[in-house]
Amino acid sequence: MPVNLLQPWAIGGVEVPTRIVLAPMAGVSIQAFRRQGRRFGAGLVCSEMVSAAGIEHRNERTFGYLRVAGDEHPLAIQIFGADPRAMADAARMVEAAGADIVDMNFGCPVRKVTKTGAGAHLMEDAALACRVVEAVVRAVDVPVTVKMRRGVVNGSRACLELGPRLVEAGAAGLTLHPRSAQQMYTGEADHSITGELVERVGVPVIASGDVTSREKAIAVLEQTGAAAVMVARGAQGNPWALREMIEGDSFQPTREEVAAELVVFIREAVRELGEQRAVGFLKKFYGWYLGHGRFPKPFKQELVQLETTEEVVTRL
Questions:
Q1: Does domain 9-247 have CATH number 3.20.20.70?
Q2: If pLDDT is split at 50, 70 and 90, which confidence band does 250 have?
Q3: Burial 276-304 (b: 16+ CB within 10 A, else e)
């Protein structure tokens, strides 16, 4: 049967209208980015990872990550940490904020996360990982999911042992990025191991890694039998990629369309973050939006030098 990217599926009792999931990306997946993703066809959107410790200590910026808009559902808010009690408390806050799903990050390879025992470090401590899942599942009524890597070291197959144990602990779904933590983002995602994980668990598996086109999305779903694919860097400054994946029609936005969408994104980012934070946050997006041969490179460099978002909007 041909792969249908518009086929609905579900995590627990949460129905997801398409088989495209917008990835949680640190420094990227603010509310404006998620709302845009839903508008362009992502069936499920995810927040950037939120520190359970930050929630526990009532950090003001951390609480900002818990703002939920009415038009971004279904939404997963992702938390990270290694203390079962703190993760359970954070999950309650996430549920109260309006998230449809509580997702947990067991895959982040960044040192400042793993040195606390969180992220990919949990791949090496299955007992603790399961205790965290059990605590979070007991704490909330919404489905609980886990995003993980294949393992810590190159060639690891730890996910195939850990995945079923996490499901036994109560996880309603898993996302697998089949690179090792050691690989970071180098090399290729080995989706043969994603297919093996799908065969070993009775919950939906989302395939993450190197999904940059409709052809790749379909190929990964055919190869793995996964419920959905997760799109990350391919959607940065290029929401049209999501629409193209789902609808199948090749679409190259005009400069006017790119500029108009970027202006909307700028306005939303300022509303969410405030002018001062938005100025710095948006700089990377200018390159992403204006790349792909859409605008001359000097124009992007000019925008990055401007001191206010209103100046950027005027130039666009």
A1: yes
A2: confident
A3: eebbebbeebbbbbbeeebbeeeebeebe
Question: What CA–CA distance (Å, rounded) separates 1 from 238?
Answer: 30
Q: Are 208 and 230 in contact (CB under 8 A)?
A: yes
Catalytic residues: 108
249, burial (CB in 10 Å: exposed 0-12, middle 13-18, buried 19+): exposed
Cβ atoms 29, 68 nearer than 8 A:
no
Comparison of pLDDT for 55 and 62, the residue scoring more: 55
Q: What is the largest CA-CA distance in the chain?
A: 55
The pLDDT-based confidence of 57 (bands split at 50, 70, 90) is confident
245 band by pLDDT with thresholds 50, 70 and 90: very high
Distance of CA 237 to CAs 86, 242, 258, 277, 294, Å? 34, 11, 9, 18, 11
Mean pLDDT across the stretch 285-302?
88
Q: Where are the domains positioned within the chain?
A: 9-247, 255-315
DSSP state letters, 140-183: -SS-EEEEEEEESSTT--HHHHHHHHHHHTT-SEEEEEEEETTT
The single-letter DSSP state of residue 13 is: T
Distance in angstroms (rounded) separating the CA atoms of residues 176 and 50: 19
Dig out the tokens for 311 from the structure.
């100046």
Q: Give the C-alpha separation, 20 to 180, whole Å.
A: 23
